[in-house]
Amino acid sequence: MLNTQISKLSTKPASSQCWQLIEEGATVIDVRSPQEFASGHLPQAINVPLDNLNKLDTWLHKVENRQQVFVLYCGAGIRAQKGCDILTANGLECVINGGALKDLLGCQPKR
């Protein structure tokens, strides 16, 4: 079912759709610099900065489930798209641009 939802997201999904994917088990990746990550990030996010290609390459080789859903975000969505392109080119099948951190925070489900 999750892959069906992914296939429907041909354009950048709304932040609320990204939250649905996150709640269903998507891995959340913050592609900003470690300094930006340290200044605030989603609690479930891992930092895989695009400005450190060695770290990105190391992380890519550790991904065991190539069909896992990944939601990437950054400051404005541009680096997240670049990250999506890189991950897709390296064989990850379900990569979503979550856009800007502020947009994701703005529609985070209330608990």
Automatic annotation (TrEMBL):
Which positions make up the signal peptide? none
Stretches assigned to the Rhodanese domain: 22-109
For this protein, the record's Pfam families field holds: Rhodanese
InterPro entries, per database record: Rhodanese-like_dom (IPR001763), Rhodanese-like_dom_sf (IPR036873), Thiosulfate_ST/Rhodanese-like (IPR052367)
Query: What PANTHER family does the record point to?
Result: RHODANESE-LIKE DOMAIN-CONTAINING PROTEIN 15, CHLOROPLASTIC
**What is the name listed in the Swiss-Prot or TrEMBL entry for this protein?**
Rhodanese domain protein
According to its UniProt entry, this protein's organism is: Shewanella halifaxensis (strain HAW-EB4)
